[in-house]
Amino acid sequence: MTGPDARVRDLVAGGRITVEEGERLRLALRGTGGVPRIVRNPAEYLRPLHATLLAVAVVVASLAVSQLGVRFDGALDMHRVAGVPSWRTALLDQVVAVPLTACILWITSLVVRRQGRVQDFLVAVAVSRLPLVLVALWALVMLPAPAELMRQAVSGQVSIRVMIGAVSSLPFTVWKFVWLYRGFAMSAGMRGPRAGISFVVAVVVAEVLSKVALTALLR
Predict the structure, then answer these.
(1) How many domains does the chain have?
(2) Band of the pLDDT at 32, cuts 50, 70, 90?
(3) What is the pLDDT of residue 35?
């Protein structure tokens, strides 16, 4: 998987074009003005090796954070749990969240565009989960234990801290979806409405199948 920045850097490093030519080509490939990096999935501008290393780091970080009392149970979900998930549960969560989701996005690309490499989708999906890891850490700081959170929800007396924690987590959720969509669109080589519709369908299917898979695997 190589985004515009990574491809241009390779051309410059190989001496095929000058630095100035590379900058002009990079802007032309990305469009005038470019897109802020916080919006772009890092797989778009990192070299393949670096993007792969980041993907591995995100998965490892997810496993580590799970041992603080967090489940990443599904293609999209994350929530605090009572106690600490077993390593088996944490590993199965990641297997379902990353490879299964990536395969569904890849198959969607093959059906719609008849192109795409599964390894590109694996990296894009794994990297897009970085905001989910960050919001998990934020939830550990801002939200009370699950039992207390349930008590407040049932009583209707939600604390200001919980409300602030819930609202402030929304940008992370949007951030994850943006990265996941951009990673899908780049890996599939799609743009516009077709990419958007294909992405929504694939994500819904991935979320449903991930829940079914985890239910079956954790019996």
Answers:
(1) 1
(2) very low
(3) 61
